[in-house]
Amino acid sequence: MQPSQSTLVTIILAASTGALVFAVALAKWVLARSTGTPEMRKISDAIQEGAEAYLARQYKTISVLAVLVAVLLAVGYGVLRTSAPSDPVQSRTALAIYITLSFLLGALSSGIAGFMGMWVSIRANIRVAAAATTSLNAALQTALRGGAVSGLFTVAMSLLGVGGLFAVLSMLAPSGMDAAVWATKIPFLIVGYGFGASFVALFAQLGGGIYTKAADVGADLVGKVEAGIPEDDPRNPAVVADLVGDNVGDCAGRGADLFESTAAENIGAMILGVVLFKSFGVAGILLPLVIMSFGLVASVIGIMSVRTKEDADPMDALNRGYYLTAFLVSVGLFVACKWLLVSDAAPDAWWHFFLCSLVGVATSIAFVFITQYYTEYRYRPVKTIADASKTGPATNIIMGLSVGMESTVMPVITIVIALVSSFMIGRASGIMIDGAPAGGLYGTAVATMGMLGTCGYILAMDVFGPITDNAGGIVEMSKQPESIRDKTDRLDSVGNTTKALTKGYAIGSAALAAFLLFSAYLDEVKNYNGGVSIHVDLSKPQVFGAALLGGMLVFWFSSLALTAVSKAAQSVITEVRRQFKERPGIMKGTEQPDYAACVDIVTVGALKAMVLPGALVLAFPIIVGLVFKAISGEDHLLGAEAVAGFLMIATVVGILMAGFLNNGGGAWDNAKKYIETGVYGGKKSDAHKAAVVGDTVGDPFKDTAGPSLHVLIKLLSTITLVLAPLFI
Amino acid sequence: MQPSQSTLVTIILAASTGALVFAVALAKWVLARSTGTPEMRKISDAIQEGAEAYLARQYKTISVLAVLVAVLLAVGYGVLRTSAPSDPVQSRTALAIYITLSFLLGALSSGIAGFMGMWVSIRANIRVAAAATTSLNAALQTALRGGAVSGLFTVAMSLLGVGGLFAVLSMLAPSGMDAAVWATKIPFLIVGYGFGASFVALFAQLGGGIYTKAADVGADLVGKVEAGIPEDDPRNPAVVADLVGDNVGDCAGRGADLFESTAAENIGAMILGVVLFKSFGVAGILLPLVIMSFGLVASVIGIMSVRTKEDADPMDALNRGYYLTAFLVSVGLFVACKWLLVSDAAPDAWWHFFLCSLVGVATSIAFVFITQYYTEYRYRPVKTIADASKTGPATNIIMGLSVGMESTVMPVITIVIALVSSFMIGRASGIMIDGAPAGGLYGTAVATMGMLGTCGYILAMDVFGPITDNAGGIVEMSKQPESIRDKTDRLDSVGNTTKALTKGYAIGSAALAAFLLFSAYLDEVKNYNGGVSIHVDLSKPQVFGAALLGGMLVFWFSSLALTAVSKAAQSVITEVRRQFKERPGIMKGTEQPDYAACVDIVTVGALKAMVLPGALVLAFPIIVGLVFKAISGEDHLLGAEAVAGFLMIATVVGILMAGFLNNGGGAWDNAKKYIETGVYGGKKSDAHKAAVVGDTVGDPFKDTAGPSLHVLIKLLSTITLVLAPLFI
To answer: What is the pLDDT of residues A315-331, one digit of tens each?
Structure first.
């Protein structure tokens, strides 16, 4: 017996609000920890002030842009476009309102989730620093739970948004329409939510990424290289900006990234569920949201289970928590599939789709291993980079680029196996439409949801990174004893690993999701085209041309992201040099540097620099769609087809480029750390100097361009999903 | 009145043998020049010896591999595969013999062309050095005509091979088959020629590219950086290996690259001509070869026209020659189209296709401009890299990578415009098949041929590069006076530009050709599939998966190429260090270094390193085709379709990556040269040191990985073209 729609909606809303309440409780728990010494508080306050000032200005900029886009959406749908008989609602004004409002709601929710996460993490950092004065376990738990606030808020807000929209809209069925039929229309009306989320995510990740690396590169070049002072030295005027950057980039940025992942992929999976409506009813549409609900519960349990012994590797504790979460998610997947995917015509369907979802869980675990292999110095790749540093920066760079490129191999093979196997398992499920097996795409969708089930935990681990990084900075700058620094150093090093893991996870899920969203796009085009589906035939020169443009966009965007960091870093360097020159007391330690000036300069620089690449990503698919529509001649769907080709190749190239940038950057970072353990002459050796060059090059790779590409991929998917009707 | 088949074949064979005879005459002219002083000859002899030893061993390795592949082809076609009714010849033994023999002939011709070109260029170098003692014009003409031997030999051998095969096979029509019908089968029987050519090209370019950069990077790191001696200093034991490298990489490698371009693209265009057989008859099939014949004549005139004043920029002279060639090619295109493309049903077709061919000429000129913009220091991109060098190697690298990525934008837009516009013009030509416009793809083919028309001249300019580079090295090492060095320096700098231009041209033609070869592949699949055509539908997960794998192959291959250089360079460094340590007289100038030892080490290293990436490129498409065929289920063409997706995305990503690597590398090189003109402190400044790091990173970018990718793209096209029947 399948559960009713209201039961499922209740579960979804209960799980998401429950998780939000739990996140608030966790936040209270974190805030109740000790805030350490006054010296610590002074630094922490400066970080808080800088981070909040940046976020306020960033959100202001994004709000202006979002309102602009909302107006364009409303005009495009409500005025320019004529209604088609196959539209989900007949009034074009109503359609415009649904799309525009869900866009704004998506943007708003993403902003709230990002803000909440960062609000807690900039308060957790000092508490982790203070906890490190007592025990490693206390520090670990404080950091992870601080991160969990962000993780849970992100996933729960996304679920509440999509589930809530579904709940509200399901009450607004047009008169005379069957409730179940109306339910199949809703996913098409709320695609704007995913677009809103990716819109904010792009700018948050891009702006945050530029901020964090401009501050980092600037501080390092002028501090470590020119002035010869250590990292996180309080004499460096850019040091606070650097610590602020960890929060606005890694924390708010990645939060927005995964917020939009879950939002967009939920909607995409729901659209594919609509196709199987005759087999599974509304349960098939709501399955993705139910899986995310169970995933939230699993993540909470996983997070609370983490504890470590004083002398153990904290990474082991985090890994245990992750495996527990993955196991619990698998149980949840079993329950959800068995309970929801009931079909008399296909009695074996449920366990086929359960297998698909396990493929997703396995993929997420595979990505964790692969990322570790390419970015930890226990393994060959990082060691070869360290080895190449002996002959100077040039060979270090060549080897790092080579490792980055190579690191795309295993993830791609994993993705292809996951995609093809879940498709084939789904196709074999026995679900038929018009006599043909029809469960294949839904199989890939369920696999994606299986991968995203552990999202809450992954995100908590990720935000753990900037919190411990900040805690280390606070401990260093407030001149705590060696034994405490040692604890925060250990946590910081684990944080570097978890940050790398999250990026691997984000790419993997983006890749699976891309296919999902792409299929949703084709379904939507079919829907708006009166049920006639299109192919994406690369042998048409126009489609191939659009594909080339899609690949090129990824290179162009990456170039802009790297340049933006370079330019913003340049302004930091100039400012720090000015301070050192005008106030010689700073270097002697007798005068306090002007931290706020640096924070201001990076803020302005990052916000200015994010607009052009962001606008490019928004405008490009629209231009491609409209130009190819204009030259389509008799082939009137050529515009939609060209956009599809554009989107898919941008996705393929984006996945490859993001893997290259993230892993290359991570490997360079750890090659430097490996040398710092004493190999090849250790710190201050020529090999170390060469490795520092690689590390600096890797910074904008792994923290600006790479992560922004995850968002780019998904933004392209959601923007085409929202604008599909305009290209037909 | 359309010309007869025998008239056209006569023109083609006359033009190609005529060009070969002319090339021999040019070679004699070059060899008759003065060979300078005994000191010069000593160095030149060492280069000759090293280059010939390397080429002999490289060809030995390639021969073994080629025979292996030939056996596999013969077994695959003659034993494993069962005949299909739509095969071009019914006996599978005959089919196997045609394919295998044309493969071996293609491989052999490519080898001969590469060898001849290098044979002359390693003899031209010293004559250019000697000519520089008299006048700039003499040196310029000697270098260009030396290069022209290579250029003309390459293009003429390729044309003679394809034209000759056509001529021979046209006499072997099966009894009872109409000669014209048989002519439509021939292109499918000689696809092996293109594969043989790309097979040799891949290993020649890869091995040569690894050789040249391992020697260069190794010599620079241990000479310039460690020992502090200038470039081309005779005390550096790796200096001869470095000069040998210029020949085996830039000269033999690029020659093989463009040999296979013209061969493969001729065959691809002929296959598309078969489609329009009913409109144009055999003339449409032979048009590409006629265009190449006219192009050869135009190139000869262009080359002989080049002369310079003593105080003028030699680049202007080369540009004038290029524009003359392009103009003459355009005239030839007009004649060819007007004369051959006669169709009563479509009287306007000829001028439509003439327009398409002009699109090709315009594309080649656009690529020349774009490449100059991104790699010359008169323009913004190189200047920003130089500027970023002020803050050290890290910012230099970041900016260089950013410029490289950005440099893909304009070429891609150019390619897309060329592709789509030539398709649309061709479609509007009035040629109809079954009532639908059918001239589109032929339009893109003619555009490609228009672009390749100037190939002979371009290649002469390219080989001009290593010849002048070598001449400069000989002048430097034999300690000639400043005024002579100045002349060779000017020529060398022009040679750097022409080398960069050729790479841009090679990418552009590879991109246009890729679509051409891809269309030929689909036509071939259709032909072998009994006339039923396939689409390449990216919305199938398997095709998308194969596409992802195609993109990944490019990253993997690039990684292997970079690592290979790094490893081989490492062995050079170790050897040079050993010599410096064991024989302290070398640095004092009292003892002669052991050049031959370094040459040997790089030879062994390069040959060893080229096997793995080469094998990967060969094996990967076969594995993809067979695996996806195996899991195809009811969709029995899925194997062929997946290979098509794989091929197209590998092509897209390959074009982007090659542009990134080539232009990034070129820009780094010239950023260093820009600083050496005295900007930012000039030579020995910190900015210069940073720029040297960028230049070193750029070396394997622009001379190993990038150029090898051009060949990879085309090898994938030809291998899939040859193996298509196995995937069905």
So the answer is: 899 999 999 999 999 99
The per-residue pLDDT of chain B, averaged, comes to 89
> What string of H, E and C letters represents the secondary structure of B339-363?
HHCCCCCCCCHHHHHHHHHHHHHHH
* C-alpha–C-alpha distance, residues A658 and A178, integer Å: 45
Neighbours of B589 (CB within 10 A): 10
User: Given pLDDT bands bounded at 50, 70 and 90, which one contains residue A1?
Assistant: low
Cβ-based neighbours of B12, under 8 Å, separated by 6 or more: B159, B163, B166, B286, B289, B290, B292, B293
Distance from CA of A444 to the nearest CA of B (A): 9
What one-character-per-residue DSSP string does A517-569 give? HHHHHHHHHHHHTTT-----BTTSHHHHHHHHHHHHHHHHHHHHHHHHHHHHH
Given CB atoms, is B548 within the 8 Å cutoff of chain A? yes
Sequence-distant (6+) residues with CB within 8 A of A17 are A156, A160
Does A569 have pLDDT greater than 90? Answer: no
Taking alpha carbons only, the member of A298, A214, A63 closest to residue A576 is A214
Closest CA to A450 of A292, A240, A671: A292
In tens, the pLDDT along A19-35 reads 999 999 999 999 999 88
Separation CA A716–CA A712 (nearest Å): 6
- A56 reaches B (C-beta below 8 A): no
Contact assignment for A556 to B405 by CB distance below 8 Å: yes
The tokens for B160 are 């003679």
Q: How far is CA A294 from the centre of its chain?
A: 20
Q: What is the pLDDT of residues B132-174, one digit of tens each?
A: 998 999 999 999 999 999 999 999 999 999 999 999 998 888 8
Indicate if the pLDDT at residue B442 is higher than 70. Answer: yes
Nearest CA in chain B to A426: B541
Judged by a CB distance cut-off of 8 A, whether residue A551 touches chain B is yes
User: Which two structure tokens, joined as six digits, stand for B480?
Assistant: 């000639």
- Report d(CA B555, CA A478) in Å as an integer: 45
| Amino acid found at B235 | R
Mean of the per-residue pLDDT values for chain A? 89
Residues of chain A with C-beta less than 8 angstroms from the C-beta of B404:
559
Interface pTM, i.e. ipTM: 0.92
User: Among residues A596, A711, A613, A614, which one has the least CA distance to residue A51?
Assistant: A596
pLDDT at res. A63: 93
A545 with B419: Cβ contact below 8 A = yes
Q: Which amino acid is at B69?
A: V
Say whether B399 and A563 touch across the interface (CB within 8 A): yes
Contact A512, A447 (CB under 8 A): yes
Backbone angles phi, psi at B437, to 5 degrees: -60, 135
Give percent of chain B with pLDDT exceeding 70: 100
Read off the pLDDT of residues A490-537 as tens digits, 9 standing for 90 and up.
898 888 888 888 888 888 888 888 887 888 888 888 877 777 778 888
CB B394 to CB A697 under 8 A? yes
Q: Which two tokens stand for residue B346?
A: 């479509």
Distance from CA of B722 to the nearest CA of A (A): 19
Kindly determine whether residue A392 and residue B545, on different chains, have CB atoms separated by under 8 Å.
no
Q: Check if A383 contacts B (Cβ < 8 Å).
A: no
Give me the residue from A552, A693, A696 closest to B412, CB to CB.
A552
Of the candidates A375, A389, A660, the one whose C-alpha atom is nearest the C-alpha of residue B558 is A660
Task: List chain B residues with CB under 8 Å of A713.
Answer: none
**Residue A357 confidence (pLDDT):** 95
Report d(CA B285, CA B186) in Å as an integer. 10
Question: What stretches of B546-603 adopt beta strand conformation (E)?
Answer: none
Look at the block and give the residue holding tokens 């061969």.
Answer: B263
Tokens read off for B279:
């409109």
pLDDT of B109 > 70? The answer is yes
